[in-house]
Design goal:
heterodimer; A: 249 residues; alpha/beta; B: 269 residues; six-stranded mixed β-sheet; 9 strands
C-alpha cells in the first residue's frame, strides 16, 4: 500500500546542511507488522515523520517520493493530506504527554474522534483504562506515561486506519500493558491493517514483527524476516548492536 | 549499624479536583508508602503503569509535597547554603528535560556555575563531563531541540551529576535509549555508585535491568507498595500475586482474557 523512495532528507540549520537520511527505499504491504531498530539519534523519528510530510519544511528539505496507493503524498493538496492523516495513516508519537494540549481535558480528544461515549467507554475497558467519566475529565499532565500511551493508541485505532505508525510504543509501560498492546496490534493486523513501529525495545520487536530493518549511518537496511535479523551479519554496526543486546540479557 | 540516608514513613499523596457546584473530589495517588535506603545502595522501583511511581519520585525530590507522612534524610554534607538540592531527579518525559532553545554547553556550564558559585566559562570541565558520559563532543554546540531523546537524557543526567547530589532519582532512564546506550548508562550508574558513593533510586519497567543494578526492589500497584525486599529474593520467590503476574507477563505471551481477568479480580481486592 505504501512505497517510499526518499533520496535524501537534509536538515538546514544556521546555513549549514546536514544529511539526516539518504537512499531510503522500502514498501509496506497489507497485514504486516514492520519494525525499524536503530541507535539513538539515527533518524528513526525523522524517517516516519517524513513519510506524510510532517517535518517542518523551513528546516527540512525532503527529496523523493512516497506513494500511497499510487498517489504521491508529497504532491497531495493540503485538504487531501489532512484527510489522509485523519483516517488512513495514523501516528502515535513518542513523549505523549506533550502531544496533548495541557489546557484541554481528554474529553476534547474523545469528542474530536466523532464516536459516541458508549463506543469509547467499551474501548477504554478493553485497553484496561479507567472509566470514561474519570478519564474524560483529566488533563494531559495528570496522566501517567503508560496511560497517555494507551489513550493515544486507542484514539488512533478508533478511526480504523489502514496504516498505523508507532514511535516507541513500549517505552513507558509495564509488561502487562506491553502484552496488551501486542495483542491489540495483532488483532489490528488481522483486520487488514499494517503497522510500522520504530523502537529500541528489541524484545518487543522480536515478539511482534513480521519484518525488521536496521537504521544506521543515515541509511535503512532492507526489511528482512525475524530469524535472519538475529543471525550474525557482515554489517559491523549491526553486530555491535546485537552484542550489546546479548550482553544486556 | 545501618547507615540510612532516607527513610520514608507512610507517605500519602492525594489531589483535589475543585468543583464549582458540587463537592470536591479527591483522588488518592499514593497510599502509605514506607521504605528506607542505605547510603550507597540502589533501590529499584517497578510496577503497574499509573501506580504512582513518578509521583513518588517527585515527592522524594521535593518537587511535590506529600499530603501526609514523613521523609527523614541524613545527609553527610551541610546543604543549607548550597545553591542546589541534595536530591536530584532525572525526569521521564524527554520534552521536559532540556530547554529547546539553549545550547548544551550553556546548560552544562550553568550547572558548574551552581556548583562553584561563580560565574565563568568552565570549558575544560564541560569537555571532561561530555567525555565521561560517552557523548559526541560536537553536541556541545547543539540546542536542546536538535537532540534525540536518548541524547537529551544523557545530557540531563550529566547536568544533575555535576552538582554532586547525595541521592539521585532516575525516572525511567532507559526508556528511550538503544541497547548500547542502555548498557553504557548501566555501567555509568554502577560507576557513580562506587566512585561517589551515590545513593540511587531507579524507576524502571525493565526488571531485567533492575535485577542487575538494584540492591532492593519495590513493586507498586495502584498507589500501594505490594512487595518490598532484597532484589534477588523478590524475583526468585515473589510472594505477592501482582508481582508473580508481572514476572509472568515479561514473556509477552499472555492472552487478552488472562490480562482482563487478572485486572478485574485484583482490582476488587
Amino acid at each position: 500500500m505504501l512505497k517510499a523512495k526518499i533520496n535524501k532528507v537534509v536538515l538546514t540549520n544556521n546555513n549549514t546542511d546536514r544529511e539526516v537520511l539518504r537512499n531510503i527505499n522500502f514498501s509496506i504491504s497489507n497485514n504486516m507488522i514492520y519494525s525499524v531498530l536503530g541507535k539513538n539519534g539515527s533518524g528513526k523519528s525523522t524517517l516516519i515523520k517524513s513519510l506524510t510530510s510532517l517535518l517542518n519544511s523551513d528546516l527540512y528539505k525532503v527529496d523523493g517520493k512516497v506513494l500511497w496507493f499510487d498517489e504521491n503524498i508529497f504532491e497531495m493538496k493540503k485538504v487531501r493530506l489532512l484527510s489522509l492523516r485523519k483516517t488512513e495513516i495514523k501516528y502515535v508519537m513518542q513523549d505523549l504527554t506533550w502531544n496533548f494540549d495541557p489546557l484541554k481535558t481528554i474529553k476534547y480528544y474523545f469528542d474530536y474522534t466523532g464516536f459516541k461515549e458508549k463506543t469509547i467507554s467499551l474501548q477504554l475497558k478493553s485497553f484496561l483504562l479507567p472509566d470514561y467519566q474519570i478519564i474524560s475529565n483529566l488533563h494531559s499532565y495528570e496522566l501517567s506515561g503508560g496511560m497517555a500511551q494507551r489513550i493515544s493508541l486507542m484514539i488512533a485505532m478508533l478511526s480504523n486506519p489502514k496504516l498505523l505508525i508507532l514511535d516507541e510504543p513500549t517505552s513507558a509501560i509495564d509488561y502487562a500493558n506491553i502484552n496488551l498492546i501486542k495483542l491489540k496490534l495483532l488483532e489490528f493486523k488481522k483486520t487488514g491493517g499494517s503497522v510500522l513501529i520504530v523502537t529500541q525495545d528489541i524484545d518487543f520487536a522480536k515478539e511482534i514483527s513480521d519484518k525488521i530493518a536496521f537504521l544506521h549511518d543515515n541509511k535503512l537496511s532492507e526489511f528482512i524476516g525475524m530469524v535472519d535479523f538475529f543471525k550474525d551479519s557482515d554489517l559491523p554496526l549491526h553486530n555491535t548492536f546485537l552484542q550489546s543486546y546479548k550482553e544486556l540479557q | 549499624m545501618k547507615d540510612i540516608i532516607l527513610k520514608a514513613e507512610k507517605i500519602s499523596y492525594s489531589i483535589e479536583n475543585k468543583k464549582l457546584f458540587s463537592n470536591n473530589q479527591t483522588t488518592e495517588i499514593l497510599k502509605d508508602v514506607s521504605f528506607e535506603i542505605e547510603r550507597g545502595k540502589v533501590l529499584g522501583i517497578s510496577g503497574q503503569s499509573g501506580s504512582g511511581k513518578s509521583t513518588l519520585a517527585k515527592i522524594l525530590s521535593r518537587v511535590y509535597f506529600q499530603t501526609s507522612g514523613t521523609i527523614l534524610n541524613h545527609f553527610v554534607k551541610d546543604w543549607s547554603d548550597s545553591l542546589s538540592n541534595p536530591v536530584q531527579i532525572l525526569f521521564q518525559n524527554d520534552g521536559e528535560l532540556l530547554n529547546p532553545f539553549r545550547k548544551v554547553k550553556d546548560v552544562l556550564n550553568e550547572a558548574f556555575e551552581l556548583k562553584f558559585k561563580k560565574d565563568k566559562n568552565y570549558e575544560s570541565e564541560v569537555d571532561e563531563i561530555i567525555k565521561k558520559f560517552n557523548l559526541n563532543p560536537s553536541l556541545k554546540e547543539s540546542k536542546g531541540s536538535q537532540l534525540s531523546g536518548g541524547e537529551k537524557q544523557r545530557i540531563a543526567l550529566a547536568r544533575i551529576v555535576i552538582v554532586e547530589p547525595e541521592i539521585l532519582v532516575l525516572d525511567e532512564p532507559f526508556s528511550s535509549q538503544d541497547v548500547e546506550a542502555q548498557l553504557s548508562i548501566i555501567k555509568l550508574i554502577i560507576k557513580l555508585k562506587l566512585e561517589l558513593n551515590l545513593t540511587i533510586i531507579c524507576i524502571s519497567h525493565d526488571l531485567n535491568i533492575l535485577k542487575h543494578i538494584s540492591d532492593e526492589l519495590i513493586i507498586m500497584y495502584n498507589g500501594k507498595v505490594v512487595e518490598y525486599g532484597e532484589t534477588k529474593a523478590l524475583i526468585d520467590k515473589p510472594t505477592n500475586e501482582y508481582t508473580r503476574f508481572l514476572l509472568r507477563a515479561q514473556a509477552l505471551n499472555l492472552t487478552e482474557e488472562e490480562i482482563q481477568k487478572f485486572h478485574n479480580t485484583y482490582e476488587q481486592n
